[in-house]
Amino acid sequence: MENQENIKVKVIPGGPLMVSGTCEITHADGTVEVKENKTTYCRCGLSKNKPFCDGGHKGTEWDK
Ligand code: FES
Asked: Which of 52, 54, 62, 64 could form a Cys-Cys staple with 44, CB 3.0–4.6 A?
């Protein structure tokens, strides 16, 4: 995948990283996935769908 656009990363306070733009993700098992538009990535470690945020941070001490 060529880098064809400007990718922006926003830190959501008490929440995930929000990445805007098309990203190619290589997972730990070597599979490759392309995400377009906005994707949220877990930074709390509580998601059951890493590397993506599944909302698991909500209502925890981490989101305060
Ligand atoms: S940041 Fe949302 S589950 Fe980790």
From this structure: 62
